[in-house]
Design goal:
- The protein has 2 domains: about 250 residues, 2-Layer Sandwich (BirA Bifunctional Protein, domain 2); about 90 residues, Anticodon-binding domain (Rossmann fold, 3-Layer(aba) Sandwich), CATH 3.40.50.800.
- By secondary structure, it is an alpha+beta fold.
- It starts with 13 loop residues before the first helix and ends with a helix.
- β12, α12 and β13 form a beta-alpha-beta unit.
- Helices cover about 40% and strands about 20% of the residues.
- It is elongated, with a radius of gyration of 27 Å.
- The longest helix has 21 residues.
- The protein is built from 15 helices and 16 strands.
- The strands form 3 sheets. An 8-stranded mixed beta sheet has the order 1-5-6-11-10-9-7-8, with helices on both faces.
- It binds histidyl-adenosine monophosphate.
- Histidyl-adenosine monophosphate (HAM) binds next to β6, β10, β11 and α11.
- Histidyl-adenosine monophosphate binds next to β6, β10, β11 and α11.
Length: about 425
């Protein structure tokens, strides 16, 4: 039998895991700086959680969920995103009663969507996301966006584009919705059956239909921007002011609607503008969801957040070819020539490792030249050679592989010397 990984999933192999770990560390560190605390929720939830929050007319709920009945005949779903679970947990654990508001949370873990597999789109992918719940201050919208941007910037990405829009409050959305129904209704027979259903239930979803996306009626549809009431426009203006204050460049795209139903007011996406990134350029997406806590049984508590997949972040790093593209490095590789030198090599390897200097040596008794090649492949910063001569002098020959410089170092000065030159 020839069993492979399921379509849309992947093994993350040892040559890649170091990049994943570094990116995960960078994310955790950034969350510490911004004071977002980690929350871990189950991988599966009651299906109803997603139909009620993400929305039952969305592609995610209609076409992409991994839903199953468990042995107790409950309908459960592998989480397709993280916001619904975090808000459920916020309500369930009465976090709205915490002394410090807003409650600022982050999560990182696998999500599942039955989507068509292509570069950057998987059926299991890892999302990092944050949620700030309990504040309707436009300054926190800017904070959330700034955290996302800073993760990308710290990962060395330069070719980024931030696109924002306002989806308005309920009043603005109701007015826009009515205009959309009037716009599409006379021609709805030309649309796919999903859109025909969406017309009365949720006409905004027609705007991001993958089947009808080339229908000219989409481009001529009434824009939400024309229906924003005063309060919504004022809120959006403040978000833009704060972004400007933080020196975060942005573009306003009135057609940005997002594929989930819980959004209102601020919506945003961050794209990669790197050449060769591929067809899917969205790295992260998010927005405000002021009614969601109430929808899931809590008080009227406003929220905002975003999510990004680690897979797309790594693809963007790959496309920009920066210093994060090859992170696997080794401090020292020790070559012992001959039986006695090998013993010393084993001893020194151990000593260096105990002093936090990552060290490797040969365990196959290979020729010196082959060991040198290994050191190169492993990206070693230094090679330490011990031959008869060095044994006699109680020294090693230390070679800096980037400069080619060599010097003889006494064993008892080795750690100090290595640490100093690694700092320089
Ligand atoms: P979303 O736009 O559905 O929003 O997904 C956010 C990000 O997850 C995308 O921009 C992309 O990086 C990644 N992503 C989504 N689907 C896939 C896939 N099939 N393969 C690889 N990466 C993928 C949400 O999920 C919202 N919960 C975000 C949010 C948080 N809004 C408020 N708070």
């Amino acid at each position: 039998m020839d069993i492979k990984v399921p379509r849309g999933t992947q093994d993350i192999l040892p040559s890649e895991t170091e990049k994943w770990q570094r990116v995960e560390e960078l994310i955790r560190e950034t969350c510490r700086m911004y004071q977002y605390k980690e929350i871990r929720t189950p991988i599966f939830e009651h299906t109803e959680l997603f139909t009620r929050s993400v929305g039952d007319t969305t592609d995610i709920v209609q076409k992409e969920m991994y839903t199953f009945q468990d042995r107790g005949d409950r309908s459960l779903t592998l989480r397709p995103e993280g916001t619904a679970s975090v808000v459920r947990s916020f309500v369930e654990h009465k976090m709205f009663g915490y002394a410090d508001q807003p409650v600022k949370l982050f999560y990182m873990g696998p999500m599942f969507r039955y989507e068509r597999q292509q570069a950057g789109r998987y059926r299991q992918f890892v999302q990092f996301g944050i949620e700030a719940i309990g504040s309707a201050d436009p300054a926190i919208d800017a904070e959330v966006i700034s955290l996302a941007m800073s993760v990308y910037q710290k990962a060395g990405l330069k070719k980024l584009k931030l696109v924002i829009n306002s989806l308005g409050d309920t009043e603005s959305r109701v007015a826009h919705r009515e205009a959309l129904v009037n716009h599409f209704e006379p021609h709805i027979d030309a649309f796919c059956s999903d859109c025909q259903n969406r017309l009365k239930k949720n006409p905004l979803r027609i705007l991001d239909c993958k089947v009808d996306r080339n229908n000219p009626l989409l481009a001529s549809a009434p824009s939400l921007a024309d229906f924003l009431n005063e309060e919504s426009s004022a809120y959006f203006e403040k978000v833009k002011e704060y972004l400007t204050l933080l020196n975060i460049p942005f573009e306003v795209d009135p057609n940005l609607v997002r594929g989930l139903d819980y959004y209102n007011h601020t919506a945003f996406e961050i794209m990669s503008a790197a050449e060769g990134f591929g067809a899917i350029t969205t790295l992260a997406g998010g927005g405000r969801y002021n009614g969601l806590v109430q929808e899931l049984g809590g008080p009227d508590s406003p929220g905002i957040g975003f999510a990004m997949s680690i897979e797309r972040l790594l693809l963007a790093i790959e496309a920009e070819k920066n210093e994060w593209s090859d992170l696997s490095t080794l401090d020292a590789y020790i070559i012992g020539m001959g039986e006695a030198a090998k013993k010393k090599a084993v001893e020194l390897t151990n000593e260096l490792r105990l002093n936090n200097i990552s060290t490797e040596m040969d365990y196959l008794d290979r020729k010196v030249k082959t060991q040198m090649k290994s050191a190169d492949r492993l990206n070693a910063k230094y090679v330490l050679v011990i031959g008869d001569d060095e044994l006699e002098k109680e020294c090693v020959m230390l070679k800096n592989l980037s400069t080619g410089e060599q010097q003889l170092i006494p064993w008892n000065k080795l750690i100090e010397q290595l640490k100093n030159s690694m700092k320089a």
